């Protein structure tokens, strides 16, 4: 995103509320704008918070379209992840999981990361381990192996931690990467 685009997005976010903006754009146009705001080059937190609220407004205005793909809730979960809203992150990922079977590995791993949250996380580290193992059962995604190693370290299981650390070391540095959750669904 160039500087001009960033300035335009900042102007939009300061002149219109998310609930007003959602009525000025079509669904796909709004989705693209929200993604540009979320992933802005400046990593501007206020723009990311605005984008998350904007996605929520989009979900309210277009419920049928929104519910047509698990990817929309996954994108919203990603947005909540960026702005560190742990409860809403979990809720969005849960809605996404409820919409697709089998659950894609990137969504399983995103849900597993929900065990990292202040207070009482919505899932336990043991549940997270099961989710990650499910995600990497056919392909050892680098992110999944790294998370699994960290989860075993966190629960004090050094045998499993070392096992996954060895797996990680043996993987190609450019090993399989998970598809991103911030991708706009293809129509």
Shape: elongated
Contiguous helical run count: 11
Which stretches of 5+ consecutive residues score pLDDT under 50? none
Percentage of residues in strands: under 5%
Number of strands: 0
Cα distance spanning the termini: 23 Å
Biggest β-sheet strands, sense, barrel: none
Instruction: From the alpha carbons, calculate the radius of gyration and give it in angstroms.
Output: 18 Å
Secondary-structure map:
Elements: H1 3-15, H2 18-21, H3 27-38, H4 45-61, H5 63-66, H6 70-82, H7 86-98, H8 105-112, H9 125-135, H10 142-155, H11 158-170
Detailed description of the structure:
This protein has 187 residues and is mostly helical. 65% of the residues lie in helices and 0% in strands. The protein contains eleven helices and no strands. It has helices spanning 3-15, 18-21, 27-38, 45-61, 63-66, 70-82, 86-98, 105-112, 125-135, 142-155, 158-170. The radius of gyration is 18 Å and the shape is elongated. The model has no long low-confidence stretch (mean pLDDT 93).
């Amino acid at each position: 995103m160039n500087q001009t685009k960033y300035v335009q997005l900042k102007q939009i976010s300061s002149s219109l509320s998310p609930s007003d903006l959602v009525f000025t754009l079509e669904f796909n146009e709004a989705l693209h704008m929200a993604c540009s705001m979320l992933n802005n080059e400046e990593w501007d937190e206020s723009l990311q918070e605005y984008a998350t609220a904007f996605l929520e407004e989009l979900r309210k205005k277009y419920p049928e379209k929104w519910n047509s793909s698990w990817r929309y809730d996954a994108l919203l979960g990603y947005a909540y992840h960026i702005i560190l809203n742990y409860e809403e992150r979990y809720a969005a990922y849960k809605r996404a999981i409820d919409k697709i079977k089998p659950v894609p590995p990137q969504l399983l791993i995103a849900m597993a990361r929900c065990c990292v949250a202040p207070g009482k996380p919505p899932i336990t580290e043991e549940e997270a381990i099961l989710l990650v193992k499910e995600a990497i059962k056919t392909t050892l995604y680098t992110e999944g192996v790294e998370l699994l190693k960290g989860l075993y370290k966190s629960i004090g299981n050094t045998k499993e931690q070392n096992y996954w650390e060895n797996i990680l070391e043996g993987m190609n540095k450019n090993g399989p990467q998970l598809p991103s959750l911030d991708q706009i669904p293809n129509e």
